[in-house]
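Fill in residues.
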């Protein structure tokens, strides 16, 4: 009798194991629509009128809290989205469009957080760029911190309600020719570049912020804007040098009059003065296209800049330039400015 009971217990145990395996096979199965997967490569397979979406088989967790996507081809429109969604997310919607999902979109640099209307969040991404998404483990109870990266640098983060069932890595595409390389086992570690002045940074990378708010890579003026002294200033913690001699910004919102200035200034520059207005500074002003070099009166220099334009500033150092000091040698360096990669003008300092 004991042998019979033991036999039935063994059969029930085997049946239970089989049922668990079947449930896990269904639960941990990746889902994709209007996409083709070839190894770690995802390709859009639609007609550009409909969204294609991929959802990974397993959610992010304490053991695996980060993944990356490298853009191989942007296709016609580069409408590639990277983010997190519930397991049974509707595959005919971009990640971030529906509730309980969040995603960073490469074509416009916006964050979509459960809404079809995105918020300006970071830089646009193109062919060769690496977009990452991960979760932070130090969020408050009931909240989950989701962060995004571009080429190894954190773009920004957002807090969303934590899901008991977890959130799954997702990739969306929406135009012909889009193709990405998927790495679901990527490891997150901040890549540090000493001395680099970059706009895709965080508040700790800025030495001084006056009437300027930092959100991810976005700099936003929050002053009164009523008089000439109501100027906002963001000054990087580290200067340009021979290794990192150039930086850019993109005008995402020109405001009322586009009073935006890009340039270089001494460390103790007045916080209520536009770059270029006072001694020890030089700047290109977007509203009138003038160059200001230590004076409140500018000289005609280049085109005016509007929303969507990209402005850049850099230094061309002499080959024998040294930052070690030592001696009283005086160098002449060439400061240059660029606008939307077409206009370029140089100025000797």
């Amino acid at each position: 009798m004991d042998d019979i009971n033991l036999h039935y217990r063994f059969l029930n145990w085997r049946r239970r194991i089989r049922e668990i395996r079947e449930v896990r096979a269904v639960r941990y199965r990746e889902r994709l629509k209007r996409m083709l997967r070839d190894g770690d490569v995802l390709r859009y397979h639609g007609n550009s009128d409909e969204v294609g979406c991929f959802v990974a088989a397993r959610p992010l967790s304490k053991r695996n809290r980060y993944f990356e996507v490298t853009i191989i081809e942007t296709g016609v429109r580069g409408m590639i989205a990277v983010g997190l969604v519930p397991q049974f997310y509707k595959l005919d919607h971009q990640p971030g469009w529906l509730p309980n999902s969040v995603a960073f979109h490469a074509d416009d640099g916006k964050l979509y957080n459960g809404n079809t209307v995105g918020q300006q969040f970071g830089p646009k991404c193109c062919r060769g760029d690496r977009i990452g998404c991960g979760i932070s483990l130090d969020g408050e109870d009931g909240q989950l911190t989701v962060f995004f990266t571009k080429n190894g640098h954190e773009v920004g983060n957002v807090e969303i309600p934590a899901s008991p069932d977890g959130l799954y890595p997702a990739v969306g595409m929406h135009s012909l020719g889009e193709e990405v390389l998927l790495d679901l086992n990527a490891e997150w570690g901040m890549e540090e570049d000493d001395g680099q002045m970059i706009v895709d940074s965080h508040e700790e990378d800025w030495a001084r912020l006056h009437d300027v708010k930092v959100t991810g890579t976005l700099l936003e003026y929050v002053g009164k804007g009523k008089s000439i002294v109501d100027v906002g200033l963001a000054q990087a913690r580290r200067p340009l040098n021979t290794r990192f001699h150039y930086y850019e910004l993109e005008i995402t919102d020109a405001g009322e009059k586009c009073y935006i200035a890009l340039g270089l200034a001494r460390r103790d520059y007045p916080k209520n003065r536009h770059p270029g207005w006072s001694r020890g500074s030089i700047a290109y002003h977007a509203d009138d296209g003038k160059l200001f070099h230590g004076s409140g009166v500018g000289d005609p220099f280049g085109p005016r800049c509007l929303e969507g334009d990209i402005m850049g500033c850099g230094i061309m150092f002499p080959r024998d330039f040294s930052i070690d000091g030592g001696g009283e040698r005086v160098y002449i360096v060439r400061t240059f400015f660029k606008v939307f990669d077409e206009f370029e003008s140089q100025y000797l300092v």
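Residues 99 and 106 are 20 Å apart (CA to CA).
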